[in-house]
Design brief:
Order of helices and strands: EHHEEEEEHHEEE
Largest sheet: 9 strands, antiparallel
Strand content: 25-35%
Number of strands: 9
Helix content: 10-25%
Amino acid sequence: MIASPDRTPLPREFFDRPVLEVAPDLLGRLLVRATPDGPITLRLTEVEAYDGQNDPGSHAYRGRTARNEVMFGAPGHVYVYFTYGMWFCMNLVCGPEGRASAVLLRAGEIVEGAELARTRRLAARNDKELAKGPARLATALDVDRSLNGTDACATGATPLRILHGAPVGSAQVRTGPRTGVSGEGAVHPWRYWVADDPTVSPYRAHVPRRRRS
């Protein structure tokens, strides 16, 4: 649990920057998910940057589609996608409108509302595993495609909001290749995490999926 975090919402200008600036600066920030059962607050400890049409690992590399439309919109919005036929993953859109880039939220520490997160993550062996990985994070926070396009910088009530929190100093930020990315995009060291934090997910290189015979 972090002490006395700043609960001021991050402005849209925070996200209206190059994704490689925004991604490491998100570490230590607070993500608040408002649910009908109460709020859940998560301290971000691991993220990955995806630089749109400059990045072979990005969903927007080949241009605009119905799936990635939100990535081309205004910064500060939430991009949620469905993967492997069973999991949701959550991203925050960055950069100027029309230039798709986003930060994948990979892991974090539940600092408020852990009792609610536990009801959604029954397989977690302890609270450090509640949001240890992007699919687990989305599951713990009850995030699905219904939240795709949510404005996390809205001035009124919003189901997702990013607060200033306690940003991590550069000495505590580590960087390396992104998890599970293949091809040319695998070389980019665009995964950022808080050093020695137990909620950070383990690195896994891309493993090609085998077709069933």
